[in-house]
Amino acid sequence: MALNQEEVKLFGLVGSPFSTRVEIALKLKGVEYRYEEEKVGNLSDTVIKYNPVYKKVPVLVHNDKPIAESLVIIEYIDETWKQNPILPSDPYKRALARFWSKFIDDKCMIPAWKTAFTLDEKEREKSFEETEDAFQFLENELKDKFFGGDDIGLIDITAVFIAFWFPIVQEVTGLKLFTSEKFPKLYNWSQDFNNHPIVKENLPRREGLLAFFKARYESLVASK
Amino acid sequence: MALNQEEVKLFGLVGSPFSTRVEIALKLKGVEYRYEEEKVGNLSDTVIKYNPVYKKVPVLVHNDKPIAESLVIIEYIDETWKQNPILPSDPYKRALARFWSKFIDDKCMIPAWKTAFTLDEKEREKSFEETEDAFQFLENELKDKFFGGDDIGLIDITAVFIAFWFPIVQEVTGLKLFTSEKFPKLYNWSQDFNNHPIVKENLPRREGLLAFFKARYESLVASK
Question: What Pfam families has UniProt attached to this entry (chains A, B) (predicted)?
Answer without folding.
Answer: GST_C, GST_N
